[in-house]
Amino acid sequence: MFKIVRKEVLSPTLKLFDIEAPKVAKKCQAGQFIILRIDEKGERIPLTIADFDREKGTITLIFAEVGKTTQQLGQLEAGDSILDFVGPLGRASEIEKYGRVVCIGAGVGIAPVFPITRALKEAGNEVIGIAGARSKDLLFWTDEFKAQCDEFHVCTDDGTAGVKGNVTEILKKIIEEKGQVDYVICIGPIPAMKYTSLLTKPYGIKTFVSLNSIMVDGTGMCGACRVTVGDEMKFSCVDGPEFDGHLVDFDEQMRRAQIFKDEEARALAKGSCGGGGCGCH
Amino acid sequence: MSLNTVKHEMPCQDPKVRAKNFDEVALGYDKETAIAEASRCLGCKKEPCRQGCPVQVPIPQFIAKVKEGDFSGAISTIKEKNALPAVCGRVCPQEAQCEKYCVLGKKGDPVGIGRMERFVADWEREQGIKPVECAPPTGKKVAVVGSGPAGLTVAADCAQAGHKVTIFEALHVAGGVLMYGIPEFRLPKAIVQAEIENLKKMGVEIQVDAVIGAIDTVDELLENEGYDAVFIGTGAGLPYFLKIPGENLNGVYSANEFLTRTNLMKGYLFPEYDTPVKVGKKVAVLGGGNVAMDCARTALRLGAEEVYIVYRRSMEELPARVEEVHHAEEEGVIFKILTNPTKIIGNDENWVVGMECLKYELGEPDASGRRSPVAISGSEHIVDVDTVVVAIGQGPNPLVPRTTKGLETNKWGNIVASEETGLTSKPAVYAGGDVVTGAATVIKAMGAGRVAANSICELLKK
Questions:
Q1: Does residue A117 share a domain with residue A214?
Q2: Strand ranges in B366-440 using DSSP code E only, listed in sequence order
Q3: Do B384 and B406 belong together in one domain?
Q4: In chain B, what residues touch A68 (CB-CB under 8 Å)?
Q5: Chain A 77-116, CB below 8 Å of chain B: which residues?
Q6: pLDDT category of residue B429 using cuts at 50, 70 and 90
Q7: Residues A234 and A159 grouped into a single domain
Q8: Most exposed of A14, A162, A230, B291 (fewest Cβ within 10 Å)?
Q9: Could you count the other beta carbons within 10 Å of the beta carbon of residue A197?
Q10: Interchain contact B205–A (C-beta under 8 A)
């Protein structure tokens, strides 16, 4: 069992947990993920590591409540435990001194991009951060994120915080103003990663994205997380989760994310259907 | 004598009924049938059956005890050589091993060795399994990476020799392919867990959720964690695909994913269990091995209306066990043999709507001795399917080799280990099972585990 030692409600649908997992905390690096299972009947879901404390032995996770499992997870409190917690999985981010780097966190993607930003800063890069969300109440960790950056931008779709607009618009301005950007990492919803990659391609800027594909085991066994990168089939879990954004087939990833859409709706309806039609009775 | 030519039949669930449930298909012998089958054994002095067994179970001796009704004696005799008899009695390909060499097989059916093994193992479980006695503690520590058939065998043998054994398992439950791969209807999971509980009673510690290569490397186990030897039995856990267009369409699964969702995650009980597994009306399973048969029969049970095995050679070359093919046919699986897909066709929303195939004919024998399939030009045709399961094999999982310096692998990524000792290119590191040989059988992995365990025990004597 893995104990939740701290819970923070970032917004009604956005929660933070510090989870006691000393062995994972000792080993994990920026860019890696974990897989958890809440209880005996639960599914295994991957979550990218938002932060870690090697001394306290904790892993920080931030998740949006988008499905049955994340909703159930969000109802847990500090002191509760989850049954399974596996990691650190996937390849770590390639941290180098690139020069001038732009780190983009869109939506809940702000969480996983945070430790990567910190590592890039520690590696001696000039770091420009962009945090974007649909609306102000979905933004979080802007102070923490900003503290790792030499320059920092905030944007929201509705203009309730920072500049009104999306992360790619800000990135475009930065590229045009600075003239030279050496590396971009973007984590967020597939469209944000897709359009960031499309934007940087003509400039020839090395751009990496982190995929949150459907997975079961997370160790290369099931192949559910396959993704077309260039003309090769890759597995997000063991070959990723980070890939060259200029080579990823984002449209395919977008469609693959829909595989269990009907089942997800059914799982969400379970227990709240009042006894009819959902198949859970 | 005429009675002696026919093996006592295995009682099974009716095919029509069982094709819709996940309960075990074969029901097992009762006492009387087991004793009657045992009486068929001639008790040959030369014990030809034993040479066919990868772990050399004393077969005539255990059968003699069954004949006397001494089931306790029979199971003890098997357990001298085999730690997982309830599993082997169910999933070993006896027709290609022990039973192949049975003298009775020359004129009729061989003795039903596997069925009797299963019977006595089940009998013991009903009585409550007595753990095998272990030697006094040696103070030596053995790490076993992976809890499939190879790892469980190494754990049992080393624990019996008095070593402290810890198994590291990546998934949330021990058993490896016995849990995630082989379906409930062929190998009930409670049986696997009973065997694993027995290991725990022998003092074996099992750490689940522990991915070696991630949480600790093999080198760290040896250098920091105080293990005196490490056995790697991580299996064939990386699915192969055909590399034809359309394999990333929605509705295409690897066999591993399809079976893991169903077995390990209990997707057949969705939404009571949270993991979904989606099966359409018409399912094509690509491949002709036991895993393909498992997938096809699973698809039927999940509610598919038509299930095809698509295989490019003929029925004779199917690598699956005859019994599995027979069960699949009885349940209504349709065999599209001499057929091979060239592409999977999707609709605008990325879902599978069909599969283009070519018809094949058999040509000259190839390097494997099997007649090689040759495509018939102009035979392109569309098979109407909405789900495709790719069951053409698995490669070795890369996590351990990738993180272990100096561990030699071959060009397919399999760990190189001596057949005689199980030793790898690193001192005190042994390997066996599918990660060395490529996908094979449960019992072969157990045989390799036995070899490695013997070497480990030799090493630790020094």
A1: yes
A2: 371-375, 381-383, 387-390, 394-395, 429-431
A3: no
A4: 274
A5: 83-89
A6: very high
A7: yes
A8: A230
A9: 23
A10: no
Pairing of strands A81-82, A2-11: antiparallel
> What is the distance between the alpha carbons of residues B41 and B59, in angstroms, rounded to a whole number?
10
* 8 Å CB contact of B271 and A267: yes
Alpha helices by DSSP H, B132-245: 149-160, 177-180, 189-201, 218-223
Task: Report the domain count for chain A.
Answer: 2
Kindly state whether residue B26 falls inside one of the protein's structural domains. Answer: yes
Rounded to the nearest 10 degrees, the angle between the axes of helix B149-160 and helix B189-201 is: 30
- With bands split at pLDDT 50, 70 and 90, how would you rate the model's confidence at A272? low
Where on the phi/psi map is residue A162: left (φ > 0), alpha (ψ -120 to 50), or beta? left
CB atoms within 10 A of CB B404: 24
CATH of the domain at B312: 3.50.50.60
Which amino acid type is present at position A124? G
CB contact under 8 A, B261 and A238: no
Of B171, B208, B211, Cβ closest to residue A89: B211
Query: What confidence tens digit (pLDDT) does each residue in B281-297 have?
Result: 999 999 999 999 999 99
Pairing of strands A206-210, A242-244: antiparallel
ipTM: 0.91
Check A260 against B209: CB less than 8 A apart.
Answer: no
CB contact under 8 A, A263 and B278: yes
Residue of B237, B253, B349 with shortest CB distance to A221:
B237
